[in-house]
Amino acid sequence: MSGITLNLTPSDSQHTLIEKGWFGEKEAMWPGQKFCIEVKEVLLNGRSQFQDILVFDSVSYGRVLVLDGVIQVTERDEFSYQEMITHLPLFACPNPRKVLIIGGGDGGVLREVVKHPGVQEIHMCEIDDQVIAVGKEYFRSTMSTAYDDPRLKLIIGDAAKYLLEEGVAQNYDVIICDSSDPVGPADVLFQPAFFQSMQAALNPVGGVVITQGECQWLHLDLIRKVMGEIKDMFAQIKYAYTTIPTYPSGQIGFLVLSRDGSVVLNQPSRAVAEGMNLRYYSEEIHGAAFVLPSKFVCSCG
User: Fold this and answer.
1) I need a labelling partner for 138 at 20 to 30 A (CA). Which of 59, 72, 100, 207 fits?
2) In whole angstroms, what is the distance from residue 192 CA to residue 234 CA?
3) What are 81-91's pLDDT values in tens digits?
């Protein structure tokens, strides 16, 4: 981590998304609707090797991180996503000792993983070191708080390549794929070959994978497609979700997967420990996250 510095080239592209003091998201995957946040002050507007990066202070949502025109986190509601994508698999897994985080450069997932004292090793593979640098600079007191944890091994590189070259030997108990939408560099993370690589890297006994699974209100066709393509790779495939105001339609889903048919994915395997400082996740909401409206049950299984 010490070798990563903030080094962006100037970018004007995202300033076009701010009009009359309001930021409005791009609509590539949710045409016909747009979420807007009132801007107090733009703090950073640049481009990394992979994507445009914008950081601004908002009037009512705290500090906001935007990648390629799409909101990634706001300080007001990020915990509902970070806690659920982390604690659903970590509490479902009977004995999580070795964890892989894919993406997550803002540091929020890592912040939650380190709350589990039984975890002995954390590998984190992030393709864009500038997202990490931005997190350390602008979100150091909220999300990027755990990069100094001694259990962490940080890998800067392509997660698909990393899993192909080194994944089989790792035997991860939990894999958390905190990806952005399947546009640009994240597209590969929704392909069958990538899921096959995660399956090969996962502990066959008790191991759990979770991936960002898109919105049930907007992306049922994509969710159905991915679940159909990977149905023979895992003994269990379930869809869960969390609520979050600044994501499209106020909801984001997760694909929760295991090679082990005996793991109970929709129930925590142990109680939440005192002092974990959780604001959204609980034992009750763990189970509730897997309860889907009838329309979506028929579509997602």
Assistant:
1) 100
2) 12
3) 999 999 999 99
178 in catalytic set:
yes
CB 244 within 8 A of CB 254: no
Query: Considering the entire predicted model, what is its pTM?
Result: 0.95
Tokens coding 235: 């003994």
Pull the structure tokens for residue 5: 């510095």
Residue with tokens 């995202």: 14
Catalytic residue among 68, 128, 129, 178: 178
